[in-house]
Amino acid sequence: TEGIVIAIDGPSGSGKSSTARGVARSRGLRYLDTGAMYRAVTWWMLDRNVDVGDTAAVAERAWLPELDMGTDPASPAVRVDGADVAHAIRSPEVTARVSAVSAVPAVRERLVSQQRDLIAEAQRAVGGIVVEGRDITTVVAPDAAVKIYLTASAEARAQRRGNETQAQDLAATQAELLQRDLLDSNRADSPLTRTEDALELETSGFTLDEVIAIVVGLADEAT
Ligand code: C5P
User: Where is this region: Disordered (predicted)?
Assistant: First the structure.
């Protein structure tokens, strides 16, 4: 029997990563942070001084970075050309540029294909995988057994992101989040959208453990 796929989409700071990791740990599944893949490609482009505003330059190099994604929820490693970039991909420079790079169709084509391979492997090897991003329920795994659209108020999302990055200026953090969401929701290729068949979970009033429990319950129902 095929393992389960749990697909989670949503805007920045909605708690997708913590939720997805928690669900994967609780059910012995693998975990894939697709945002980390777009960040890793962006990190590589910046490291090579590629002008990320130049769509053709980015597209030409989309397949060059060697991406090695760990799918263990306890320690999801990210390697580019052998280098551990798990920390570097969270820098403000990468965060500010990732939406431009992720809008380039060649980058998406390459990463979606790698994501589908990782999903298929997890389905064969273990009980399945929890995958989170912006286009998982719509493009990467539209047939997933569980499809969730995670949201929270802009204030709650900025607060969460601010705690993670130790940002002092919450208003600036919120402005940055909303700017990235605007770009991610309005790009031509695979924009962030909620489909009819994805369950919307508004998490502002819930703790992380409560949200994890809800998703685990949905997964148990689906299996
Ligand atoms: O999830 P995270 O905030 O780390 O994602 C970083 C960026 O990667 C997003 O703002 C978006 O531009 C891009 N992304 C995407 N498709 C995904 C996941 C992330 O375009 N499935």
Answer: 1-20
Which single residue is written with the structure tokens 């490609």?
A: 41
Residue whose entry in the numeric block shows the structure tokens 């095929």 = 2
Spatial CA neighbour of 201 closest among 217, 222, 223: 217
Confidence at residue 166, expressed as pLDDT on a 0 to 100 scale: 79
Query: What is the chain's percent helix, strand, coil content, to nearest 5?
Result: 50, 15, 35
Report the nearest-CA residue for atom 5 of ligand 1. Answer: 35
pLDDT of residue 1: 59
- Measured from the CA of 136, which atom of ligand 1 is nearest? 21
How many C-alpha atoms does 1 have within 13 Å on its Cβ side?
Answer: 6
Under-70 pLDDT residues of the chain: 1
Residue listed under structure tokens 């599944």: 29
The letter for the amino acid at 27 is R
Does the reported pTM lie above 0.90?
A: yes
Q: How far apart are CA 122 and CA 52, in angstroms?
A: 32
